Amino acid sequence: MASAERSTPRVTEELVATAQHPAREMLTMFVGNRAAMVASIILMAIVLAAIFGPMLHPVDPFEMVWAPFTPPGQDGFVLGTDYLGRDMLAALLNGGRVSLTIGLVAALMSVFIGISFGALAGFYRGVVEEILMRITEFFQVLPTLLFSMVIVALFGASLEVVTIAIGIVSWTAVARITRAEFLRIRELEYVTASRAAGASNITLITRVILPNALPPIIVQAALMVGSAILFEAGLAFLGLSDPNVVSWGQIIGSNRPYILDASFTVTIPGLAIFVTVLSISLIGDGLNDALNPKLRAR
Amino acid sequence: MAKTRTDAPLLDVRNLSVQFTTRAGTVTVLDDISFTLERGERISFVGESGCGKSMTALALMGLLPAMGRVSGGQILFKGEDLTQASAARLRRLRGNEVSMIFQEPMTSLNPVFTIGQQIVEVLRLHRGIDNASARRRALELLEAVRIPNASARIDDYPHQLSGGQRQRVMIAIALACEPEILIADEPTTALDVTVQAEIFALLRDLGTKLDTAIILITHDMGAVAQMSERMLVMYAGRRVEEGRVADVVGAPAHPYTRGLIACVPHITSNVAAITEQLPEIDGIVPPITRFGRDECLFAPRCIRVADGCLAAKPQQVEMAGHDAHSVACWHPFASEGAKG
What value of ipTM does the predicted structure carry? Predict the structure, then answer.
């Protein structure tokens, strides 16, 4: 620090420890978490494979290209072929695109709905809170799989409907977390101080309270991508997904009758789902440790 | 900002009453508070915790908690009654014409934004200026509140600053729009004694420079003497004594004021010379449910209590011999020249 311009003698104020930027501190924490880092690298590989894989391996996943049930590695088919003689590798790569997209979009959707409900309920309290939280509870007690099946059955099994159905049934956790954080933060002094500086309610919600409420919501959102992928797999397995696109769950579902003859047709997409969801969970865990200062001491 | 001078005081609070609706019923938190504030004037509100000092400030800002409401009286700011003002009008007023700084600088800043961003936010909200000039102004403000090396500090987060520096930033935010009234609610309670004096000096200097009237809320008699020209002593939601600081401290008329002053070591030389043990006022502030009764609420703790004290609420009367020195007591201590 250059010769500071001091006008008054200062005893306490110069002895300030230089602290790190909070985002950098968080990153350091996250990078130090080995499981989360490995999971990040694996997930990155999966995402890259889903994005660029179909271009590098331009085979139509619906086309019958060889004899059915060709084991992996045989006749030039890295992952073999399924019961209709379709290329499993192509199906896996294309299915990854769909599964990841649905997972991400559905999670974003439920985060958006959840934050809206939770923020308004936690900020305004009173009647608004009562109404919004009763609605949240209503969605919470619905059997999620059944409800999403009803939505898909009603509106048709297209990609959009499946995504929306997953988003609609899984936002309640975010709403509850957001509300809890808002209830805590709205009583803090800097909220009063912002109010005293003339901030409107919208400013208070979006610029003052929400940024401070984000850490647990981010963690929840990360975990929700994983559960949305699982959910989609579940729906697809039951045949409630868009028949015109491949997804991991759909591969499993369509090959299910042949599990005893060619178990790899079910195992391979199952492993893909398992590894992806596990990576996302580990990343979520790592984020939780990095964002939650109470766990930092460990 | 063009400041029009009128004969009316900047702030004229008339018979302000505030009630809380609680589960136990309606309680009167502020009972018939009146005072005026001129442009650039500094006034202190003194009293124990729970006497309604902070509540008066919040009422002025229109920031009463949800269970509270103004049940009577007027708050005339430049002739405009703020108790009738719309929420939008109050919002434009807050932080712009009337600002407030709080007791806890450690928690009064938003932890996820840099101090520069927080000053810029207020400037953009009320002044509508672009980012670049708001940032320039923020830097000027940080220099004005004597943050060392301000150009490097502007991108710091609140947790990187000390308590004194954070309070300086709060002052910078509060003064960003050159308000006409600054309410300082115990601004130095959480700070080191060495830093306290600096903060008060800063407030005084900037208040004079910007012609900002300052309402200081405190229970520190030393701060009162250092900061303000006039003082208002509050007890149980009522104004018990008001006058110039020299008059009130020199010849306190209300037994409560006298007790408060006696509690402070060496504020007047003769007290320090003879007392070995600091005196205290016995008892505590009555529970809020007793506020607003038609009696002298200080009577149970008063050394001069007599028969009539619980019969009715004492009215504010002018003290003889002093200008604008008034007291609400049935048996006040007389100032010089008046009867005992």
Answer: 0.82
